[in-house]
Design a protein that fits this description.
Blueprint (H helix, E strand, L loop, with lengths): L14 E4 L10 E6 L9 H12 L3 E5 L16 H15 L5 E7 L1 H10 L5 E7 L5 H9 L19 H11 L3 H4 L6 E6 L7 H11 L4 E5 L9 H23 L7
Parallel strand pairs: 2-3, 2-4, 4-5, 5-6, 6-7
Antiparallel strand pairs: 1-3
Helix pairs in contact: 1-8, 2-3, 4-5
């Protein structure tokens, strides 16, 4: 895959395509992976998840939202609402070649997935890794003491906090839980119990709302990005086994044991 992908503003999005293990290839399926705030497509939680899926035969596309990583655009414009447009552009390109699209979002990328899946039937299953639900609470807790358009996110000089970003999370979106109720596709939520960035309560709120219609995995002691090797292994195994099951149910795909 060597297509140029641009969002509606003409900003080119940096992405990495990886073809799944040929001997186990899951035909007609592609998995898109989106990162969280201040992240990019090369963050370990994204790369390691994509690699685990590649081993069992899934084609993957991990990309950086506009203004992040090597994608074009201004980081200060990287709002949740704008990132939906970026994901839309990626899906536009991939549905030219694939019948089945899965989306995996980490942190704020998880909120993007909820908002997009609620309105876009091209996403056929959804995975949230430490997914953000209460966007206003996150913004106020993490950046409430930072002056927008002057200060920085977590003191990272390459990540200025914009009033546009704060307004989008606190006023425009506020909380994605109302749209979570609209999602009828298979949905897996994975969260570490020691996450102090996006609290496990976000996933718990979806679990309470949706009950048995969603699958939820809590990984004891895991932080926001599943950084410990044992936690990352548990997370990637949960993703792989769940997505293999969903693909089999949708397409009667036969998987070999690896």
């Amino acid at each position: 895959m060597n297509a140029v992908i641009q969002n509606r503003l003409g900003e080119q999005l940096d992405y990495t395509f990886a073809e799944g293990n040929q001997s186990l290839r899951v035909n007609d399926w592609v998995v898109i992976l989106g990162h969280g705030v201040t992240g990019n497509k090369d963050r370990p939680v994204i790369v390691d998840t994509a690699n685990a899926l590649k081993l069992v035969g899934f084609d993957t596309v991990r990309f950086s939202y506009a203004g992040n990583g090597d994608s074009e655009g201004d980081f200060r414009d990287s709002t949740l609402s704008k990132e939906m447009g970026d994901l839309d552009a990626v899906i536009d390109e991939l549905v030219k070649s694939y019948k089945h699209v899965a989306y995996i979002g980490h942190s704020m990328g998880g909120a993007v997935g909820v908002l997009q899946a609620a309105k876009d039937s091209r996403i056929q299953c959804l995975i949230s890794l430490a997914g953000m639900i209460n966007t206003q609470l996150f913004a106020q807790t993490e950046f409430g003491d930072v002056t927008p358009d002057t200060g920085f996110m977590w003191d990272e000089k390459d990540c200025p906090l914009s009033s546009k970003y704060m307004h989008d999370l606190c006023e425009t979106v506020h909380n994605v839980i109302p749209l979570a109720d609209c999602i009828q596709i298979p949905w897996l939520l994975i969260h570490g119990t020691a996450d102090d960035v996006v609290l496990p309560a976000d996933t718990e709120s979806v679990q309470t709302l949706k009950g048995d219609s969603v699958d939820v995995v809590f990984i004891e002691g895991a932080d926001h990005s599943f950084n410990e090797q044992s936690h990352k292994a548990q997370m990637t195994q949960a993703v792989v086994e769940w997505l293999k099951r969903i693909a089999k149910e949708h397409t009667n795909t036969k998987f070999s044991k690896v």
